[in-house]
Write a structure and sequence with these properties.
two-stranded parallel ribbon, mainly alpha, 8 strands, two-stranded antiparallel ribbon
Length: 240
């Protein structure tokens, strides 16, 4: 989101935390928000009525006059990078309309679409994750144990990239699985009481950053497991 904010200075990006002020501050440190307005909902009384979802389930977009362009864009957890490209197309159209110079092209089906986001947006997003062909260690989250595990995960990913093999992929899967389990325990322990939005009593609701984070963990592990199944076939299935 911060990269988008840099690439689209005409657009105001808001990150609204539904958990608590503590989680909002945690996200601020993790993603180094500068141009993004970072805020939180203090209680359920301020929750939107009738619509709304977490960012990984789709963004809410309005135009310069406050009219909704989309109440729910494509979800990253369902469509991956395609969801980001779809959002960038919406933003590109809004910006071009504001300038009075809408541009479009015909896709393979003959339907008109707006231009996709500038190449620099996609390149910057990729560069944030990789440099010289290597995955970069995430910025510190302020928790030493998590920072160390993030480095271990990054090293395992780079090993798979430099020396792709079933053994290294299995090692990466196991390291990620262990890290995810540890991270989920910590998140539930320190932020669980605010789950479901500012003061919403125990458990992990679907309208929770923790719940979506856990879902993303599962998505990542399934990708690795699918590749391991492909490589080992029935042998790995029997050993599960």
């Amino acid at each position: 989101m911060e990269l988008w904010a840099k690439s689209y200075p005409q657009v105001q990006f808001l990150c609204v935390c539904v958990e608590s002020r503590q989680v909002a501050e945690y996200f601020h440190r993790m993603f180094h928000f500068n141009r993004v307005v970072n805020c939180y909902i203090p209680s359920r009384n301020y929750f939107p009525v009738g619509y709304g979802q977490l960012g990984c389930s789709g963004f809410i977009v309005s135009d310069v006059e406050g009219y909704f362009v989309s109440r729910k864009t494509a979800a990253f957890l369902q469509y991956g990078e395609e969801a980001f490209r779809a959002l960038e197309m919406i933003l590109a159209k809004l910006v071009s309309l504001e300038k009075g110079e809408e541009k479009s092209f015909k896709n393979e089906e003959g339907c008109t679409n707006v231009n996709v986001a500038p190449t620099s947006v996609r390149m910057n997003r990729d560069a944030a994750a990789e440099k010289d062909g290597k995955v970069q260690v995430p910025a510190s989250v302020g928790v030493v144990a998590m920072d160390e595990e993030h480095k271990e995960c990054t090293d395992a990913m780079n090993l798979v990239l430099s020396e792709p093999s079933s053994c290294n992929l299995q090692k990466l899967h196991d390291i990620l699985k262990s890290h995810f389990e540890h991270e989920e325990v910590l998140m539930k322990k320190y932020f669980g009481s605010m789950n479901g939005g500012s003061g919403g009593g125990g458990g992990v609701s679907s309208f929770s950053a923790i719940a979506s984070h856990i879902m993303d963990h599962g998505r990542i592990l399934k990708l690795a497991e699918a590749e391991l199944d492909r490589m080992f076939g029935e042998k790995r299935v029997r050993n599960k």
